[in-house]
Amino acid sequence: MSSATVIATEPNPQQQTHDPSHPQSAYSNRQVPSSLQLQDIETRDVSQAMDFNTTQYYLKCAVGGSLAGALTNTLVCPLDVVKVRKQVYPNIYKNTFQSIGVVWKNEGFRGLFSSATSVMLGYGIQGGAKYGFYEFFKFRYTDLLGPDASGKYQSLIYLSAGASAELIADVLYCPVESVKIRMQTTIPTFASGPIDGLRKIIKSEGFGALYKGLIPLWSRQLPFTMTKFTLFENVVSAIYKKLPREKEDYNHLQQTGISFLAGYIAGIACALVSHPPDVMFSKMNAMKKAPGDTTNKLLTKIYKEIGFRGLWNGLPVRIFMIGTLTGLQWLVYDSFKVMTGLPTTGK
After folding, report:
1. Superfamily for 52-339?
2. Residue 249: DSSP 8-state
3. Annotated region Disordered: where (predicted)?
4. Model confidence, pTM
């Protein structure tokens, strides 16, 4: 019987004796919890009894991750368009506000959201795979190390689970990202949508062109995601250690607020560690691959053109974008988990 049931069915305190030996007399002086507290007690009992190593659990996490990725990245699509154009055409697009003005003047609203469909599709796929597989690998690696070692090496588990999930997610995401960048950097846009873009690239350059940016994508996303999950988990843990009560004593709104704060902090660090490969990836996908061009040749050519300083083009807007984005993603993800009866991430 859950604690919520015990409270709901106890006798009227006025009818109870105050005999200390009576098992229910301890309740006589307690305040009856509110409906919100009862809901949290019930959810806590369910989460404690839940088996997290199930297909149903991982699917819920994948759906939550897909929503988090698709909704948040579509929301900041104009910033992403500006960021990519600044990286590819730094002589035209000088700063964030000037760049937004240039795009708005020349292309209007459609220009700022020129890749919205590709963004929603691509990040929906990537987010679902990333969060779902992260939860899967986190459980697997914890189980592999055992209770003693896993407690000692928690950050290593987070790093490894994040890296494993990202490797898989990027294989699914890379073709759509290639189309997205082409659509963001061509005027008029070279395709009407992601499917049309995939078809055109395959027809003109072959299927392999969809994956020419996979290595740069991994070099950007692996440090990004490893930082994102590891720092988030540790920041959440640090916040709850500083608070006067246990995590389970805070309601869902408070817990998801902590998720947003920890996500924002993690997002700032993610932007810093992943920005140079993000610039290289954007430049590479904006170029047409000539016969005989290898990834190493293209990377060398790009670096000769932009130099070390060029690797940091667009960093301020990306810090703001990724910080906000990551905070919102964790907010959406953990809110979805709560809605489906799961606990928020972290402890």
Report:
1. Mitochondrial carrier domain (1.50.40.10)
2. G
3. 1-30
4. 0.74
